[in-house]
Inverse folding.
């Protein structure tokens, strides 16, 4: 399997999108190594945000360039030290946002790097939600602007606590040092942005074009389901194209062709989700490859590119179902 960052827990959604059968997930672009996933919902009081001490960044000083960070000198603060190394001019980060970022994490005393996304070449989409990420990230990043490089020193109280993180080699007494390059930030109400495309085929579902953060309607016609994959723009964005091996951040809603019943939705969960295209059903992987960031895409998936006769247990999807999705591609990671 691909290694997934420990910074966050498995994202909401995707329970019904995970690819079945052949596993093509060994390309190593995501990570199971350490990162700020919350060990549990923290009961710690809010910290003070202090200026330091923070170890020097000795190389890789440009935004989105892998940094080299010196080992901590002396004792770290018992509060959270935060420094804006490069000030960005983008949107202000708020609690519960998803930040799209590269980051490096290391241990204060030893300087040991326990995880970094730069080597994998894939940013992470991280929810700044209590219980989903260590509190140090929430307190350190909220109020900063997209486009910023932020350095933080996070003591155990707002990190992994007394239990540490054995998988990453983090002990319960370790203060953690992070360098975070925030590319962008998104809210649970983020939507596609672009030009509406005519939906003229009466034999295909019609998808709503609202961009107010609410789930679009999906009206399935009284017609036979298509035998081949359909992937067409509803709203065409102007961002970069998604590649077959990319990871993306999305909003989506899925309904069954037969009856139009909804079976999954990020809108209903109130949380965006991200994933590598190589780890979802073939219809998603094939349908979204080549589409532009910022777009809303209608994807109609025949059974052989979806779940066939082995739908996920408890999903509400029957055997040999044709699936219909509205997918807003918010970011390429």
């Amino acid at each position: 399997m691909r290694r997934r960052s420990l910074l966050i827990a498995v994202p909401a959604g995707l329970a019904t999108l995970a690819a079945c059968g052949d596993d093509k997930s060994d390309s190593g672009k995501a990570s199971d190594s350490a990162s700020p996933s919350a060990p549990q919902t923290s009961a710690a009081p809010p910290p003070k945000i202090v200026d330091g001490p923070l170890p020097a960044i000795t190389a890789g000083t440009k935004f989105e360039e892998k940094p080299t960070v010196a080992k901590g000198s002396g004792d770290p603060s018992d509060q959270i030290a935060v420094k804006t190394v490069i000030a960005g001019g983008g949107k202000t980060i708020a609690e519960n946002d998803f930040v799209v970022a590269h980051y490096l994490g290391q241990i204060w005393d030893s300087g040991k790097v326990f995880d970094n996304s730069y080597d994998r070449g894939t940013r992470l989409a991280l929810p700044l939600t209590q219980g989903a990420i260590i509190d140090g990230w929430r307190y350190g990043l909220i109020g900063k602007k997209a486009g910023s490089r932020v350095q933080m020193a996070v003591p155990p109280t707002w990190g992994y606590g007394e239990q540490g993180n054995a998988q990453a080699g983090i002990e319960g007494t370790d203060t953690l040092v992070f360098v975070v390059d925030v590319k962008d930030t998104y809210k649970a109400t983020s939507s596609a942005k672009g030009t509406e495309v005519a939906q003229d085929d009466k034999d295909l579902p019609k998808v709503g074009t609202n961009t107010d953060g609410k789930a679009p309607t999906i009206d399935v016609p009284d017609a036979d389901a298509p035998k081949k994959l359909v992937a067409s723009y509803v709203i065409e964005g102007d961002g970069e194209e998604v590649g077959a091996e990319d990871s993306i951040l999305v909003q989506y809603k899925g309904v069954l062709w037969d009856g139009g019943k909804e079976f999954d939705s990020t809108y209903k969960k109130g949380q965006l989700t991200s994933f590598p295209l190589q780890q979802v059903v073939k219809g998603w992987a094939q349908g979204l490859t080549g589409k532009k960031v910022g777009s809303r895409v209608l994807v109609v998936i025949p059974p052989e590119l979806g779940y066939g006769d082995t739908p996920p247990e408890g999903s509400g999807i029957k055997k040999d179902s044709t699936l219909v999705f509205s997918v807003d591609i918010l970011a390429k990671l």
Notes: Residues 310 and 316 are 12 Å apart (CA to CA).
